[in-house]
Amino acid sequence: MARKRTEGQAERQFATKLIHFNRAIDSTTGASSTPIYQASTFHQEALDDQQEFDYTRSGNPTRQALEDYIAVLEGGTRGFAFASGMAAISAAAMLLSSGDHIICTEDVYGGTYRLLSTIMTRMNVETTFVDMTDLDKVKAALKPNTKAVFMETPSNPTLKITDIGAITAWAKQHDLLTLLDNTFMTPYHQRPIEHGVDIVLHSATKFLGGHSDVTAGLAVVANDSLGLRMKQLQNGLGTILGVSDSWLLMRGMKTLKTRMDAHEKSALRLAEWLTEHPEVETVYYPGLPGHPGRAIHEKQSLGYGAVVSFDVGSGERAKKVLSKVEIPLVAVSLGAVESILSYPAMMSHAAMPREVRLERGITDGLIRYSVGLESIEDLIADLEHALSFDE
């Protein structure tokens, strides 16, 4: 017998929702794992009676289970799974039309910056990048053709905090679409739709997947009208997530809370240790008492996350650290069970011109540390050795 969703399920705690989401149990067989429907097309029983699935680009039971899953976690009306985080962001950007204008977080992820500054400009969509920690600067960027506000909080990689509620309240006064990249916080720590955001976006490759083994993007909309428009774009662009990757992502998401709790505990210890290290000039982490956006972050988020950025003063010193560490991967990406150390100037923000990076605090000495699930004592000892520049 198929198990039906009850009203009580909506009130369950986040940890329970992660495991017992709708479609978690297969309604046909009772399988405890969502089946992988490895099919490109579906037989039509009756041409006059439209069925839920007809062609996998338009919809697939495995991908649908994932899309329903993220919608429940984010508190939205509908979810969409894409081939990558940038595919999700690009689809959302396609909601805009020629002649429109976007206001965007200035120290946004490099891939988003590249999309908005080199691709959307060819579509005659312009972007103004502003410091979203200052609401007055956001307001000053408004133009007659402004149609959307794109937020990333905490920002990547300097972890600046945007007041989500203040931005969305102002945006609604001007009938602006609001989008937010929630990759760093995940719906466990931060649910932007509850603060008025229209579309939430994820590089699910990161913390949601959590194991460096799947590339995926997710989008969640706040209302049915946006859901219809996003569905048209997903189907029309065809940048869907494959069914095997959809299954793999769901498997990773089930342990999200446990992983994030452990990540954060270690990240806070690492950040506190770095603030005392003589070779480190600046540490960026919203859980530190001196972080300028901490009070706002705590108002809208339940945790501080697992990403710590720190500046060692120069590109030469940063490269020495990256060459000496032994435990973290030195790699593009973040949010995995293994720690990942990356160099924004040459990795995540390589598409951003150097002068633009420096204006936004993304210096040549900046290193981003995604804290994994290894022993924090081992991670600190490893980094202590890497920061010994006299050796």
Q: Residue share in helices?
A: 25-40%
End-to-end C-alpha gap: 67 Å
Radius of gyration: 21 Å
- Count of the domains: 2
Beta-strand fraction estimate: 5-15%
CATH fold-level name of the largest domain: Aspartate Aminotransferase, domain 2
Can you give a write-up of this model?
Keywords: Amino-acid biosynthesis, Aminotransferase, Lyase, Methionine biosynthesis, Pyridoxal phosphate, Transferase. It comes from Paenibacillus foliorum. This protein has helices at 14-19, 61-74, 85-93, 110-119, 135-140, 164-173, 186-189, 224-237, 243-253, 256-275, 294-300, 315-324, 354-359, 376-386, and strands at residues 78-82, 101-105, 126-130, 146-152, 177-181, 199-203, 217-221, 282-284, 307-311, 329-330, 340-342, 366-370. Helix content is 35%, strand content 14%. The termini are far apart.
List the main descriptive attributes of the protein structure presented here.
single chain; 391 residues; alpha/beta; Aspartate Aminotransferase, domain 2; Aspartate Aminotransferase, domain 1; 2 domains; 7-stranded mixed β-sheet; 5-stranded mixed β-sheet; 12 strands; 14% strand; globular; disordered N terminus
